[in-house]
Amino acid sequence: MSKSTTTRATTRSKPGPPPAQPTARATVATRKRSAKPQTPGAKMVPEQRQQRIAQAAYFIAERRGFAPGNEIEDWLQAEAEIEALMKAALQ
Fold this sequence. Notes:
Elements: H1 24-30, H2 46-63, H3 71-90
């Protein structure tokens, strides 16, 4: 003898109001913007500096055809270029 189980679907007797949708005003209010736009001479956080150096090193490697063996030199050259740009922007 096998047992059969019945499941009863539960439904609401009265449907409630639809869930509130965020309005455009609420979405805009949650975005934060800095009071001052960031200029090239503004102080960079270490992550930004690292990202810019990595990008510059990539372009240096690209110019030389991505030949292996010069990765460190590419990085050091990119680091020097970014430092020079930062100093020039501060003056």
